[in-house]
Design a protein that fits this description.
The chain is α/β, with parallel strands linked by helices. The protein has three domains: 164 residues, Rossmann fold (3-Layer(aba) Sandwich), CATH 3.40.50; 83 residues, Rossmann fold, CATH 3.40.50; 110 residues, Rossmann fold, CATH 3.40.50. 35% of the residues lie in helices and 18% in strands. The strands form three sheets. A six-stranded mixed sheet has the order 2-3-1-4-5-6, with helices on both faces. The chain has a four-stranded parallel sheet with strand order 8-7-9-10, sandwiched between helices. Helix 10 links the parallel strand 11 and strand 12. Helix 12 packs across helix 13. The C terminus is likely disordered.
Length: 399
């Protein structure tokens, strides 16, 4: 996969913040070398977060986000400020742009504290260095001028340095299946499957296997037994779509490690131990309990949709109860989760790791158990221990 083809969820997310008319959008345009944001002398020109996936040298593939001014006013302005602060959920690097001729204000300092509290690598860029600026010091601070271009290259280099703090070579499957070993990927093609392509978790898993020089056999459930019988030796791992867990587990011998794409992503993007513990809440669900089912992407709902139809049916059958289900998708996720008995989240393939972790932290703060699709389904099918065992036996597992 080339850098230009890197999906947004795998890019470093760089978010720019600042007061209205600090020159934030002008700095964004100077850094990106394009008119990403609308610029004017009117305070509050940026009314919604504006994001663009691009390549920013020397950082590499990134997503740049320009946010509304943090000092916006009025009822609508407060909604804009809330959206700006929400951008912190996915920010791997935060850049606070301050009008250097005025210096930092209370709101700027409060935002810096938010960066620190969330452990977000940050930069304070004092704009308008063509004017007189004083009091700039520290490794996180830099002077720039969007007007003259002064300091912009240095800012990009500092962004790249901060981005590397976050960059991790975190394996999805390459610590489970090594070079010349075989993995069997079970990919059902049904009414819910996208036409003409594989879904992102399947693509990423397959690509990482190929990059590892492992051998990948891709099949559907109906051809799985024939695929296994055709191998000279058992595969190192079988990975299935979670919806087919029950049928696949009957076909795959107990001696062969088995897991799902969603469980791989539970470790890759989330917190495996937290999700496993969260699945235990399924055993305590009662009539009327509220369950939130959340997906990180938005797509056309079809008959047999996993989130809105299959999962609720699995839960009703497993618990013998009638819970109350709520659904969110894309960037929607409640600030307050109190009142829910459980959150069941998708694998998060369309969310970057920081946003997935922020949702987990929100659930923890509300005292609400959280799990994900694959782990929940494995729990309800009675194969959870088997399906997570390969991840804990790997050299890269967090135990």
């Amino acid at each position: 996969m080339s850098l230009n083809e890197t999906v947004s969820a795998e890019r470093v997310h760089i978010a720019f913040f600042g007061m209205r008319n600090a020159g934030k959008s002008s700095v964004v345009n100077a850094v990106t070398g394009q008119a990403l944001s609308l610029v004017s002398d009117v305070a509050g020109t940026t009314t919604d977060p504006v994001s663009k996936a691009m390549e920013l040298l020397p950082a590499g593939p990134v997503v740049i986000t320009d946010t509304p001014g943090i000092d916006d006013e009025g009822e609508l302005g407060l909604m804009r400020v809330k959206r700006a602060v929400r951008a912190l959920d996915k920010a791997d690097v935060a850049v606070l742009v301050i009008d250097g001729s005025k210096g930092a204000c209370k709101l700027d300092n409060e935002l810096i504290e938010k960066f620190k509290n969330r452990n977000i690598p940050y930069i304070v860029a004092y704009n308008k260095s063509d004017l007189k600026i004083s009091g700039v010091n520290g490794e996180n601070e830099i002077t720039v001028s969007a007007k003259t271009g002064s300091g912009i290259n240095e800012l990009k280099e500092l962004i790249a340095k901060k981005a590397n703090i976050e960059k991790k070579d975190k394996p999805l499957i390459s610590d489970l299946v090594y070079e010349n070993e075989t993995a069997v990927l079970v990919v059902p093609i049904d009414a819910a499957a996208p036409k003409g392509r594989l879904i992102l978790p399947q693509q990423q898993t397959l690509r990482e296997l190929l990059d590892t020089n492992a051998i990948a056999a891709v099949t559907q459930v109906g051809q799985l037994k024939r695929t296994l019988d055709g191998l000279k030796e058992p595969p190192k791992l079988v990975v299935t779509d979670s919806q087919a867990f029950e049928e696949v587990s009957r076909i795959v011998d107990e001696s062969i490690p088995l897991t799902s794409f969603s469980i791989l992503f539970a470790r890759y993007k989330g917190e495996l131990d937290v999700f496993i513990k969260g699945a235990e809440a399924l055993k305590k669900i009662k009539n009327g309990d509220r369950i939130l089912i959340s997906e990180g992407c938005t797509h056309h709902r079809q008959c047999g949709d996993i989130g809105t139809q299959k999962l609720p049916a699995f839960v009703r059958k497993f618990t013998g109860c009638e819970p109350e289900f709520s659904f969110t998708s894309g960037g929607e996720f409640p600030d307050e989760l109190t009142g829910y008995s459980l959150v069941i989240h998708c694998g998060g393939c369309m969310l970057n790791e920081r946003e997935m972790k922020s949702r987990i932290e929100r659930a923890k703060a509300s005292g609400v158990p959280i799990t994900n699709y694959g782990i929940a389904i494995a729990c309800m099918k009675g194969i959870l221990e088997r399906s997570v065992r390969p991840l804990y036996e790997s050299k890269g597992a967090d135990k």
